[in-house]
Design a protein that fits this description.
With 82 residues, this protein is α/β, with parallel strands linked by helices. The chain is built from three helices and three strands. The protein has helices at 19-30, 45-49, 54-63, and strands at residues 10-13, 34-39, 67-72. The chain has a three-stranded parallel sheet with strand order 1-2-3, with helices on one face. Strand 1 (10-13), helix 1 and strand 2 (34-39) form a beta-alpha-beta unit.
Amino acid sequence: MTEMRYDGRVAIITGAGRGLGRAYAELLASRGATVVVNDLGPESVEHRRRKPRIPAVIETIRRGGGKAEVIYADLSAEGQRS
């Protein structure tokens, strides 16, 4: 069975800081997708309460030869942008 590839595709992953979200982000990147991960951003209370994990995810993907970017926004609210 051949491996599914995602070259030329973009995957937007929320919750990519840990757990299943991170696993999906790393898997899709390893199969050629450009991965866009989401975080609330440094100005949010939630972000300051926990250790930001997104930079480590981005670094891991890029170190493995993948493409990754981050968007800082609350995607639960329409009209948000980084």
